[in-house]
Amino acid sequence: MGLNYIDGRWVAAQSGATFERRNPADRSDVIGTFPDSGHDDVEIAVSALIKAAPAWAATAPERRAEILEAAAANLESNAAALVDELVREEGKTRAEATMEVGRTPMNLRFYAAEAVRTTGTTYPSPGEGLVFTVREPVGVVGAITPWNFPLNIPSRKIGPALAAGNVLLLKPSELTPLMGQRLVEALLAGGLPPGVIALVQGSGKAGAAVVADSRVDAITFTGSTQTGRAIHAAVGPERRSQLEMGGKNPVVVLEGADLDKAASLIVKGAFGLSGQACTGTSRVVAVDAIHDDLLSRVVVLAQKLVVGAGGDEGVTMGALASAGQYRKFLDYVQVGLDDGAELICGGTPHDDNADGFFVTPTVFSGGTPEMRIVTEEVFGPLLVFLRTENFDSAVDLANNTEYGLSSSVVTNDIATALAFAARTKTGLVKINQPTTGMSMNAPFGGFKASSTQTNKEQAGESMMGFYQREKTIYLSGLA
Predict the structure, then answer these.
(1) Model pLDDT for residues 339-392, shown as the tens digit of each residue
(2) Which residues are catalytic?
(3) Using alpha carbons only, what angle is made at residue 256 by residues 252 and 258, rounded to the nearest 5 degrees?
(4) Lower CB density within 10 Å: C or N end of the chain?
């Protein structure tokens, strides 16, 4: 049975309420029961964190780094078990789970190094005085994290928050509570003082309680744009928020492009993680000259994907994460048909896997800018093709969305690639690469409705800045 971690103890929810998490690939497989927390649990957790904050802020950066390094080593020593649990809890394929479990310790080590690199700045000053800055922790950080990368994304928030000297409350998704617990266990095994971190499990009401508590100095969130907007409004101007939200990511393919390469990277971006990635490819904008040829190649590759339980041999696309994701996907297939798009392949439950939330990789053609499958984030394995005349109209179509997370162009012409990079309105720009995937030491974040566009995730100085306050000190007149 899962538990909350509050004030150095593993505890049930104050109300005694619980919820159950089952394997989305096999609904008879119970992962566990977990606390269904609420306002009272959050209030106790935040009060305990406030008590622990001064001692952790005063902890030497070298010691913070040692703890993050030790936590990373603990995760690595338990990697095989974590892969198995992640496959069961989320529905990922084994290859996808292995990649995430391997990357998470790397994130913690990256921020362990950042802990000892934090510096202030000295400024020229008239007279004999001295003007300089110091950086100090923000205080209590609330991290509300998604289910699609339940180890990797929390580690990108926990790592810099702890490295900067903050205390932290983690509220993981109710779809992947076990992974949240495992991450906290690894940090404690690495030597993190018991009161420095809290884990509160539960649904949206627990997350809302974290946001509503004015003693939480900063909120970092990854999830839907709708939820992110609500968080931003609730946090207000006095506190900090960092929000990474939705995407409707295009791949633009132009005449002269390598169509086999284009088809391969489109399929990888659209159907990896069963389409459940904020950077996943959901639109293809192709010029007339190559549209039909590219479409046929993508369909061939999509139909070769093997759908099934992530732990089974040879499976290349796993289950959707929940009944809600399953219903939402099938609803959007019907929306696409009703709006007049042409269903080329997929769009149905996967009948060979009736025990889980399995669907077939889905490709529509005939997309137009006003269609909902073109404008709204589906968060599932649904791809729509749009036809266009030339580069200029292709860029216009790619930019015709409220989102601005990731985009890609496939071209053999460097001038075209650079022109696309200059004109695309996304925070991530890929050239001859999938819209998914990023370097851990590079800034991650979007434009428009994809992000608050404040401090970006992943990169060292940009990310650390969110978790630190800068204080300017004027010094003069000492004997």
Answers:
(1) 999 999 999 999 776 789 999 999 999 999 999 999 999 999 999 999 999 999
(2) 244, 278
(3) 75
(4) C
Residue with tokens 């902890």: 59
Closest CA to 255 of 411, 433, 416: 411
pTM of the model as a whole: 0.96
